[in-house]
Amino acid sequence: MKSIGIDVGGTKIAGVLLGEDDQVLAQDKVATPAQSAQAIIEAIVAMVQGLQVGHEVAGVGVAIAGFIDAKQSTVMYAPNLNMRNVALKAILEDKLGLKVFIENDANAAGWAEYRFGAGRGTQNMLMVTVGTGVGGAIIADGQMFRGGFGVGAEIGHMNFIPEGKECGCGQKGCLEQYASGTALLNAAKDLLRSNDASAAGLRQICADPEKLTGSDVYQAIQAGDIAVLGLLKELGFTLGKAIASLTALLDPEIVVIGGGVSVLGNQLLDPIREAYLAHLPARGFRPELRIVAAELVNDAGAIGAADLARGHLGSR
Amino acid sequence: MKSIGIDVGGTKIAGVLLGEDDQVLAQDKVATPAQSAQAIIEAIVAMVQGLQVGHEVAGVGVAIAGFIDAKQSTVMYAPNLNMRNVALKAILEDKLGLKVFIENDANAAGWAEYRFGAGRGTQNMLMVTVGTGVGGAIIADGQMFRGGFGVGAEIGHMNFIPEGKECGCGQKGCLEQYASGTALLNAAKDLLRSNDASAAGLRQICADPEKLTGSDVYQAIQAGDIAVLGLLKELGFTLGKAIASLTALLDPEIVVIGGGVSVLGNQLLDPIREAYLAHLPARGFRPELRIVAAELVNDAGAIGAADLARGHLGSR
Known about the structure:
The structure is a homodimer. By secondary structure, chain A is α/β, with parallel strands linked by helices. In chain A, 38% of the residues lie in helices and 22% in strands. The first copy, chain A, is built from 10 helices and 13 strands. In chain A, the strands form 3 sheets. Chain A has a 5-stranded mixed β-sheet. In chain A, strands 11-10-9-12-13 form a 5-stranded mixed β-sheet, with helices on both faces. Chains A and B meet through β10 and α8 of A and β10 and α8 of B.
């Protein structure tokens, strides 16, 4: 049966109507009214009602950038959406008259990649999302791995450097502080500030470290700037080391690299693969996984949420 | 139905006959003939045949200290047993005329703890085995988590210190180098070598760092030696930090600490709990897990293997 998926992020809310043949039949997008949980809930309801017109829908999946409880009913903590302990499933079911399932947004995007993207045909997948932060999703034996309290797969908050850089989560040295798009931008800002001769190319694009943006960094990479490519390579090495360590624990068949930085393709993937192989425990005595780029760039979170909802309802 | 479990370690082979009421009806133990895979296979066959006398048995689970493939049929690599790519399932089924399932030994012991020990009643458990090395097992949604190639949950080979101490797996800085019983013994040897005044108590038990044993260290701990208790506390802090980082990824409901060092109980668990809470990402915004000692000390691997075998055969 058809289902609806809504992906609620800090800046935008995206929705899809997913057909029985796995095609996206309709989609919608609005800016997130982040001032209040109430306004976000109203925006979700309006989007579902709009996508639903003229269709019979099995249920709704809602992907949320935050901690969701193990019962997939309550948003425990979503700082960017001003939500804390919101019983979102019950509230939306009451307003919509449809079955609703809440899911973490990184989990939903990973699920879409597993079902329809780069992870198709595998049973054990690790998704690493490299964007503003570092997120993740784990598929184990064909099932979404959520953890005991629903808040697992937070790869970005694994410790990478003992007593390292401070992280917003309250800890120090989290992977996210070294391997995110934000970390890459900060490294480029430091390069500008260094007055090093190698910063000349980047300085031509933007001379002020305070004003440097991610797209400036992207432009320097596209122009083949040696110094900025070096920073990207470092980022890839960091991710590859982390993936090697995660492999000891999770042993996936495939690692899918997604998020904004993954559009750089092999410029990011090659150093990841190199560092992964160099740091893999017991290399040579175990099968080696594949590391590939995500295939679904747009609406992955909404598509994954829609598919998970119909899966819960046994109507996939 | 009844089933048989055999746990093949580097020093001994232990076997149990598990009854329908989960009681151990018979058990056996022999030294491991580690000189050849062939001799080990013959010892397993003899033990199964001995335990089987007079009983109808559904199948046999064999726990092996090594890498097992995802199909649970081949021992890919078990250095302490001189096995590499041994089709153990087929060989044993041929000799025994019974269904056989191969499992990693840490997984089997973790499964026993989940079914009959400290993990009873949970659905998501992490077992951390602190012995000669650091091993682990993951139960996810009530299922054994094996990974895509069957070699997951190798907690001891997660990176703990970047470019840290060399590990037998070929990498540097693995958790096992800092948090195992061997690491504790090495730290005690270093204390003896230091000629520090605080080593006086330990020196009375054994003055020669080359001859110091694990039971000497245990004796010093039981005697309340301040310096050695400090080393144990450090070990606990290390484990607690690692568990906090693992929690970001696995989010278990419970962490069960097993292995030889776990007999120290709260002397080990208290510092683990303290460091876990101090290093938990997003503390205060998520439920907190319980950290407890393993309950099944003897034959956990064999009992877990027996229960897994009957589970595979649908005769639990």
